[in-house]
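seq/struct pair 1
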Amino acid sequence: MNNTAMYRLSYGLFVLAVREGENDNGCIINTAMQVTVEPNRIAISVNKDNHTHDMMKRTSAFTISILNEEADFSLFKRFGFQSGRDVNKFESYTNCKRSSNGTMIVTAGTNAFISANVISSTDLGTHTLFIADVTDADILNDVPSATYAYYQQNIKPKPKTPDTANEGKIIWRCTVCGYEYVGEELPKDFICPICKHPASDFERIVVGQAAK
């Protein structure tokens, strides 16, 4: 099966922000949609491994900032490639403001925001689907929204060309961020040091040959 076919689905990318006590946190999600107009409700899907997920389960209020085509990779690294359990993602970050529900709106590389309060949730196994009432929303600019396909083609760093001196050597390249591990075998429990994705998201490459 060619999992890259999933990149052709035309869904967007969002920074999901929550606040618990005095702590702000956020993560990148790629599933958000309006499900009813009256009342105005949205649905979002969040990976259970994300610290943001657990904070939102306890607090219910959140804001999604819709990423646009001016978003750069540094925004994805800040909110997608590190955990709020380890760092304060909003520390020293000035491209944001607070929504009426107390959570953060990201104002750079985004074109709109939607704030909402969770009214129900459904366990999807690895993820939770949250249904929420919209409490506030606004447009920030007219730059087109960044789809997942746009991210793959234009924002995500392109793989570097392997050094010809390594002809015939085996490298394992992360399909999410492009990090490369050199070695005959990639440990099954390997975690990408950059984006924290597992070994299953690496492709095997023999330098000088096509990826396998």
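seq/struct pair 2
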Amino acid sequence: MYQMTPEEKSYLDQYNIEDYDRPSIATDIVIFSILEEGEQDNFRKLPERALKILLIKRAAYPYKDCWALPGGFCRQGEDVLETAKRELYEETSVENAYLQLAGIFGEKDRDPRGWIISHTYMALFDGKNHKLRAGSDAWEAKWFTVRLSIKEQEKIIEQEQVHLSTLYELVLSHEESGICFCIQIREHKEFVQYHEKVQYEWISGEGMAFDHGKIIVHTLLQLRKQAKHDLRLAFDLVPEYFTLAQLQRTFELILDEKLITPNFRRKIADYVLETEKFVEGEGHRPAKLFKRNVEAFYS
């Protein structure tokens, strides 16, 4: 164990942490899930599915009645990961979801209440079998379909410095209620001596609280980037038993691109195990069900 010297003990006895400005620490959680869209009118077709995120309608100021990411402040003696797990459980009753730190946001004036630093986590789970916390007159949560597209891009190269400017359009929609947000966020990415620096600028859009539009764009881009390099990531968005078509569609929704089926199945082959189970209760020809190959995940 580390042993303090008498000089160090004397220094700490005189040290007063209240002499320094300190931020409040909070967590925000971008919860992704793949859920079915609307009513299915053709039993021969697979249900339409969409990538969704969970938003909370704020019941208190600031940003009362605006939609925001779930989250909250760290409690005394609680680290930020414990805060994220607690908040996730309180909103969804999910205890063991995939959680990963996606970014830290501490820009000046991001919160009108003061200096608040958000540790943002990305959560992934199959939302079909999990129910949200019961609503009340002062609380509301909904799954919003999320779509992110590029509207324009610009690249400027100056000697050893490169600046990439990308204008993204983020659309968040809830079909049943008709609520829809269209937000434009510009990503400024600089490479100085090959080192990357990224900032986000709010361009337009209303209805979202704080800087949560920026956070959603950043986290979704992180998810897309990781899914291309780590095929294990998307498995948290499918049930324990799944079809290969369902798994491929999950990747397509994350990446927002169509995949070539033979190529996809070749890449994913080591990560799945065929079972003796089939899809039940479907009008089309029953498809074989697969599960994770645990050895490939933890080798």
